[in-house]
């Protein structure tokens, strides 16, 4: 993998991991996320206007942002339904396992192939993502006895599939739109999903979340867009599979911040998962 896209994904992963860490500290996560999403187009309105004046915006290309928004909404829907039916320790890592699909989809759509080192990197990252949230390494410790666990697993897998799809779609979209312009249009359109969700919450709860965490909310708004734009720039220069695999380093950032700041314990699966993801990331740099 070339150095510049590798560096861009590393920076994207750090930003992504940090804003997820801030979200984790929120009192009401739905209100926190909704407020951050509503703030994004406001914060970036002036940069967007400047970007359009410099790079232009063909109205005919807006459908790329529309499809990206649709895929994102489907992903949120699948995640929500997976969390309702499965323990977080299963639903979360499975829903993050887009690398299960990316190599095959990238080959079918873009004719991208990866070498033996690349396949090893994808394997290590995928296993690391699946292991990092487990309580211990015994298969019997995984809780499958919740009602609807089979459908929950299907929702989690489909969530991972939609992540792979909108990653691939992002690579195609930035061939026709500047990455920042695509991201802004995508973010603005996604407000149509988050605004009704925010309005369904108790108004006092939303006000309290804003009063308590407004600076964190605004930070998340900035970092979410920055993280995604950096990834889109990397997609424009590198292979989809490697970008998708390398971006899982955000989990390492999240685990590290949880340990350092929140004093979360480092269980054996968590340490093993982090090491596997790091090894996979290093192999990604060596892959061609």
From TrEMBL:
Transmembrane segments: 6-23, 35-55, 61-78, 90-110, 116-132, 153-170, 176-195, 215-235, 241-261, 268-287
Membrane topology field: Multi-pass membrane protein
UniProt KW Metal-binding keyword: no
Compartments in which it is found: Cell membrane
InterPro entries: EamA_dom, EmrE-like, Small_drug/metabolite_transptr
A Pfam family per the record: EamA
PANTHER family found in the cross-reference section: 4-AMINO-4-DEOXY-L-ARABINOSE-PHOSPHOUNDECAPRENOL FLIPPASE SUBUNIT ARNF-RELATED, SMR FAMILY PROTON-DEPENDENT DRUG EFFLUX TRANSPORTER SUGE
Descriptive protein name: EamA domain-containing protein
Species the sequence originates in: Pseudodesulfovibrio nedwellii
Lineage: Bacteria, Pseudomonadati, Thermodesulfobacteriota, Desulfovibrionia, Desulfovibrionales
């Amino acid at each position: 993998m070339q150095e510049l896209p590798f560096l861009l994904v590393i920076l994207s992963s750090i930003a992504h991991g940090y804003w997820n860490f801030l979200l984790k500290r929120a009192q009401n996560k739905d209100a926190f996320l909704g407020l951050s999403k509503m703030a994004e187009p406001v914060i970036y309105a002036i940069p967007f206007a400047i970007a359009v004046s410099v790079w232009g915006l063909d109205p005919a290309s807006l459908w790329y942002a529309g499809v990206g928004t649709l895929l994102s909404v489907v992903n949120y829907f699948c995640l929500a339904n997976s969390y309702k039916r499965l323990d977080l320790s299963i639903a979360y890592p499975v829903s993050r396992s887009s690398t299960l699909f990316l190599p095959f989809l990238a080959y079918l759509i873009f004719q991208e192939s990866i070498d033996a080192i690349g396949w090893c990197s994808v394997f290590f990252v995928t296993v690391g993502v699946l292991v990092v949230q487990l309580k211990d390494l015994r298969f019997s410790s995984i809780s499958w006895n919740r009602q609807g666990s089979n459908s929950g697993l299907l929702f989690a897998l489909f969530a991972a599939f939609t992540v792979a799809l909108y990653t691939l779609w992002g690579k195609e979209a930035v061939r026709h739109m500047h990455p920042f312009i695509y991201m802004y249009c995508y973010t603005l359109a996604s407000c149509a999903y988050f605004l009704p969700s925010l309005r369904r919450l108790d108004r006092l709860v939303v006000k309290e979340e804003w009063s308590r965490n407004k600076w964190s909310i605004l930070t998340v708004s900035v970092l979410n867009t920055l993280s995604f734009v950096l990834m889109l720039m990397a997609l424009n220069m590198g292979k989809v599979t490697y970008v998708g695999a390398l971006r899982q380093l955000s989990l390492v950032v999240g685990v590290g911040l949880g340990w350092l700041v929140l004093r979360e314990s480092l269980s054996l699966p968590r340490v093993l998962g982090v090491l596997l993801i790091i090894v996979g990331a290093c192999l990604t740099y060596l892959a061609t």
